[in-house]
Design a protein that fits this description.
5-stranded mixed β-sheet, about 25% strand
Length: about 325
């Protein structure tokens, strides 16, 4: 049995979700895929995949073995590229993920500059306002906002952002300015549902506190939430970088700043389950100073942002 070929087939089957799909991905007949998989299971004396007429699923030993196989193949591929001279000049596909608005506003310009500097590299960007698994999605790098759990990832600190509550000046002039988080019960609120529970907003003040709001509007993108706030629909709670343009042009004003929770770290992460690759190393070297500068600029804009103070005698 060709153990390496059998391992590649096993990984392809697991990733593709079926033998036929793996065969198409590998340009290999179904019978050959099945033969390789059976030979590997026989040699290991363990069932890696459970097959039925309707679906295919990994066994518990299969899931554990899959992660080892992925690391082995990644290291082997990297070593072969090194021998072939790829490490002398970055090339190949650089795959990365970032939150949607941060990715569009700050990461994409960096990627453009990187592609200009390294003509033998192409890029694939996966923008999503959720945690994306780099291994599962076959990505090289990711921008993460928030505290990082222990994982097989290398992290480079870029800066920090914070949650802010804001609304249009027109809304605040009409509805009044909330003095405490509890006062939000008397306001129209707009919730961005991806980052947190839409009806529960966390604040700090003298101690951590969570208030329940009844959103007038719930959306799943920051852009939609901010557009609604600018249109005067109510108060929105988003990450500071998402509202920074509204602070610059005066279409949004901060409220409840004294009750904001602690700032959230922003990190650039990349995988440690593979040998260093020139495309990753060169991107990190180019991107880190630019993204740190972008986050410093955002923080300076936050500090200069207009703040709406309660009017004397306000009951909100």
């Amino acid at each position: 049995m060709d153990r390496l070929a059998a391992i590649r087939v096993f990984v392809a089957v697991a990733d593709a979700g079926g033998l036929s799909a793996a065969g198409r991905r590998l340009s290999m007949p179904l019978t050959t895929v099945s033969r390789h998989l059976k030979a590997l299971e026989d040699d290991l004396d363990v069932r890696l995949i459970t097959r039925t007429t309707r679906r295919l699923s990994l066994t518990e030993p299969g899931r554990a073995y899959l992660e080892t196989c992925r690391r082995v193949l990644a290291d082997l591929d990297a070593a072969e590229r090194r021998l072939a001279g790829e490490q002398a000049e970055p090339q190949g596909v650089l795959a990365l993920t970032a939150p949607i608005l941060f990715g569009r506003s700050h990461v994409q310009p960096v990627v453009h500059a990187y592609l200009d500097a390294y003509p033998r590299v192409s890029a694939r960007m996966f923008l999503a306002d959720r945690i994306v698994d780099l291994v599962e999605e076959e990505l090289d790098l990711g921008i993460r906002i928030g505290h990082l759990p222990d994982s097989a990832m290398r992290a480079t600190a870029l800066g920090s952002v914070r949650y802010v509550c804001c609304a249009s000046p027109a809304y605040l002039d009409d509805a009044g300015v909330p003095e405490t988080p509890q006062a939000l019960a008397g306001h129209r609120c707009i919730s961005f549902a991806t980052f947190a529970q839409p009806g529960r907003w966390s604040f700090y003040g003298a101690k951590p506190q969570t208030v329940t709001v009844v959103p007038r509007l719930i959306v799943n993108t920051a852009e939609a939430a901010i557009d609604a706030a600018k249109a005067g629909l109510g108060i929105v709670r988003v990450l500071s970088y998402q509202a920074v343009e509204g602070f610059k042009d005066g279409s949004l004003r901060m409220v409840l700043e004294a009750f904001e929770p602690e700032r959230l770290p922003v990190s650039l992460i990349h995988r440690e389950d593979r040998l260093p690759q020139a495309k990753v190393q060169s991107f990190v070297a180019l991107a880190v100073p630019r993204l740190r500068r972008a986050l410093r600029d955002i923080a300076e804009t936050e500090d200069k942002a207009p703040h709406q103070l309660p009017k004397p005698g306000s009951s909100c």
